[in-house]
Amino acid sequence: MKIILTGATGFVGEGILMECLRDERVERVLSISRRPCGHKHLKLEELLVDDLLTLAEGDERLGSYDAVFYCAGISANGLTEEQYRPVTYDIPLHLAGVLPDKEATTFVYLSGAGAGLDSKMMWARVKAQAEQALLALPLKAAYVLRPTVMKPSKGQLHVKRLDRIYMILYPLLRLLNMANPLSEIGRAFINVVERGYEKRIMESKDLRMLGKSK
What is the mean pLDDT of the chain? Predict the structure, then answer.
């Protein structure tokens, strides 16, 4: 399969990218970001764009791909909704809308545990709004992944100190089905494109099942 990926310069997106590059089912990955991701591979091509909202409808560079893995994101800490919304809502909806082959493309959106339209937390409401909008688009298929705590993959370049601190609690959270290694989440992304899943919105427990080796 051929994949478009956003967020490869971030913690989660990089982990998903590494799994795509390892998986023999993935033939090609187009990473779209503002700066190089730091990885080199025969499968990997990079499209550097200052603002994804400038991508035009029918852009031929985005054609002939089987899926989009939207993993771009920012922390909501200290941000207003106006500042948080573009990356979380506007850009994924725009990207899905400009795909030349949208009716033949599966869109997989990285959300987060706790997203909800009625949440008191701004980030959770915006993510839930994005989820619902994407699921309603005329795509081949759309899925939402809501991981909780994620364990980095060996060799990752973009791991922040806070991500490492979470690893103290990882074994317990894993027992509670509230944590996933990024390699498992990467396989979940790939597997849902290949064979689908009974749910359109998936939590950590679902990702554990879907992320089993093929």
Answer: 94
